[in-house]
Amino acid sequence: MVHDDGDIGLPQVTEPQRLKCRQKRDEQRNALPLTERLQRMRKGGYRVLVMGDWNTAHREIDLARPRQNVQNSGFLPEERAELDRWLAAGWVDTFRHFEPDAQGCYSWWSQRFGMRAKNVGWRIDYVLASPSALPFVRGAFIWPQVKGSDHCPVGVEVDPGIF
């Protein structure tokens, strides 16, 4: 879904998780050329923020137990490479832009074994900014204290001039 409001585009992304979903993910990518549309928006002068559940922890700092999860969906090399591709194309991980070394900052926890209370989680929800949107982003946040789901809210604070 892409919300288009004048000079800003706000796509919401949910990446399918699990190995058995790879075929469906590939079909969705072929059916919905989101990256192409977003690149056109960027070239057209839009300030774009891409936000949502990517179901992938990008770097070791983005999950509590990286060594134990190297072979698990959500931290597989090919899944992490997808985020690398976005960043190499000029998108900016807003949370890491403002908090490059922050540890223990997660947006998802398994609902089993009290993982949230122990803060054994994964940062799998992102807000990526286009280069033209980044100057308007004043901060990025993760609100783990907000309960009600296995995920918590993530977001950005933006200067009103972005609109």
Could you please say which CATH topology applies here? Deoxyribonuclease I, Chain A
Poorly predicted residue ranges: none
Supply the number of helical segments: 5
Give the CA-based shape. Answer: globular
State the CATH architecture.
Answer: 4-Layer Sandwich
What is the C-alpha radius of gyration, as a whole number of Å? 16 Å
Biggest sheet, spatial arrangement of strands: 1-2-3-7-4
Structural class: alpha+beta
The CATH class label is Alpha Beta
Sheet of most strands? 5 strands, mixed
Distance between the termini: 19 Å
Determine the fraction of residues in helical runs and give it as a percent range.
25-40%
Q: What fraction of the residues are assigned to beta strands by DSSP?
A: 15-25%
Tally of DSSP β-strands: 9
CATH superfamily: Endonuclease/exonuclease/phosphatase
- The overall pLDDT, averaged over residues, is 87
Count of the separate structural domains? 1
N-to-C SSE series? EEHHEHEHEHEEEE
Walk me through what this model shows.
The protein has helices at residues 22-31, 34-43, 77-88, 94-98, 115-118; strands at residues 2-5, 8-14, 47-53, 92-93, 108-109, 121-122, 125-129, 137-142, 154-158. The protein has 163 residues and is α+β, with helices and mostly antiparallel strands. The chain has one domain: Endonuclease/exonuclease/phosphatase (Deoxyribonuclease I, Chain A, 4-Layer Sandwich). A five-stranded mixed sheet has the order 1-2-3-7-4. The model has no long low-confidence stretch (mean pLDDT 87).
